[in-house]
Amino acid sequence: MERFSFASEVAFVPHGDLLDGVTVAPLTAPMSEQSPFQAAIFRFAPGGRLARHSATALEIFAVLEGSGEVIGPDAVGEPISIGEAIFWSPGDEQEMHSATGMSVLIIQGERLDRFRRSTATP
Amino acid sequence: MERFSFASEVAFVPHGDLLDGVTVAPLTAPMSEQSPFQAAIFRFAPGGRLARHSATALEIFAVLEGSGEVIGPDAVGEPISIGEAIFWSPGDEQEMHSATGMSVLIIQGERLDRFRRSTATP
């Protein structure tokens, strides 16, 4: 049993220009250190955005708090809010922003699949 | 790009007597279907509890909302609240409850490690 924090105070602003107004608080060891998957909390301040890019891995994007807009491969903006998630495939173009702020859990992995009710519900 | 929900409305009450007043909304495919890891949102209603048992896998328990109490291997209760997490090893005895309600992300996996700032912070 080992306690740790993923609060706003320990989040950091990643290098690069993909993120603007977004901090990242990782929960797991990163895939860059041979982890087969990684999970982190992305906190979008009001006006925060993730610029358009292609997903590099299978990815689950799950909104934990607040709301925003997602623009996927078809370039059409769709609202997304708390309790809603998107499963992305590598190569999918993606872009997100939030006018009012949101917290998002992002999970990426080599053998990731989203939960599918038809096969796994008790 | 595939949308899905993990809202309260799609959460279920698992079989068994470990959980009382807690619903589960999985995000990923389960380890029982050969996934190398699994992640789910556990929502504790006020008074909800997870009875004492041994962790079966490496596990991250991260409080997303609200607060509660965790009782680990030393049998001493410790408060835990939003932004705080615990990394459990298989065999660790664990028990949680919340008087006022909390939402928790639980990630389990065979090769899971928590984020460690010393090795991975940019």
Protein topology:
Two copies of one chain form a homodimer.
Chain A lengths: L1 E4 L13 E8 L10 E18 L3 E14 L5 E5 L2 E5 L4 E5 L4 E8 L7 H4 L2
Query: Biggest protein-protein interface?
Result: A-B, 57 and 56 residues
**What name does the CATH topology of the domain at 43-113 in chain A carry?**
Jelly Rolls
How many helices of chain A does DSSP assign?
A: 1
Low-pLDDT runs of chain A: none
The largest β sheet of chain A comes out as: 7 strands, antiparallel
Task: Output the CATH class name of the domain at 43-113 in chain A.
Answer: Mainly Beta
Number of strand segments of chain A = 8
CATH architecture of the domain at 43-113 in chain A: Sandwich
Rg for CA atoms of chain A: 14 Å
Taken as a percent bin, the fraction of beta residues of chain A is over 45%
Spell out the helices and strands of chain A N to C. Answer: EEEEEEEEH
Q: What characteristic shape of chain A results from the CA principal axes?
A: globular
Distance from N terminus to C terminus of chain A (CA atoms, Å) equals 30 Å
Determine the fraction of residues in helical runs of chain A and give it as a percent range. Answer: under 10%
Oligomer: homodimer
**Mind telling me the CATH superfamily name of the domain at 43-113 in chain A?**
Jelly Rolls
Q: Report the average pLDDT across residues of chain A.
A: 94
The computed structural class of chain A is: mainly beta
